[in-house]
Design a protein that fits this description.
Number of domains: 1
Structural class: alpha/beta
Shape: globular
Strand content: 15-25%
Number of strands: 7
Mean pLDDT: 85
Order of helices and strands: HEHEHHHHEHHEEEE
Oligomer: single chain
Largest sheet: 7 strands, mixed
Number of helices: 8
Length: about 190
Amino acid sequence: MNTADRLNNLDAFLHTISEENHAGLGGEAGYYVFSYDPKDEMRIRQWTKNEIELFRRAHRPVVEFDLYKIMAELLVEKHPRQKYEDLEMRTGSMTRVVNAANSVLQIGRPMDLMLDYIVKRIPQDNAVILLTGVGKCYPLLRSHKILNDLHDRLAQGIVLMMFPGRYEDGYLYLFGDVKDGNNYRAKPI
């Protein structure tokens, strides 16, 4: 199935499921991953913009979280961007920058700044939550960590991650070949 057909199916799915009071088994939000060919990134961005407008016109709660924009905003609140660039130049190691960014953002910890940012800005319990900007975050932020940790914080709503790559057998492959991690709870669309 081509991207246009898959997006049409996604549109129908979202509009149907968003009309329901959605809570998963055990009072969890519904988690979904829409994987796509990274070459279609610009088409996906335009679709997302249009979809948000359709939801707003229909007075349905929807919010987009561009993970890259959030990450960049939170990192520069703590330290100037130049500090991260200097760290990479000084150490010659992107791994050190990744570790520093994850430490600053407290990824995977109780005070995770990314999750706090997202959860505090969800307009209501039954909102459609679109997670975008996944590819732009690599390698500083791994999307599976955000998706997995949201499970502990959200009891209702629909979480849809727009993922440039593949989602197979519970594993996310960013850009089709970088193994990003696993998420057994999210359903592929």
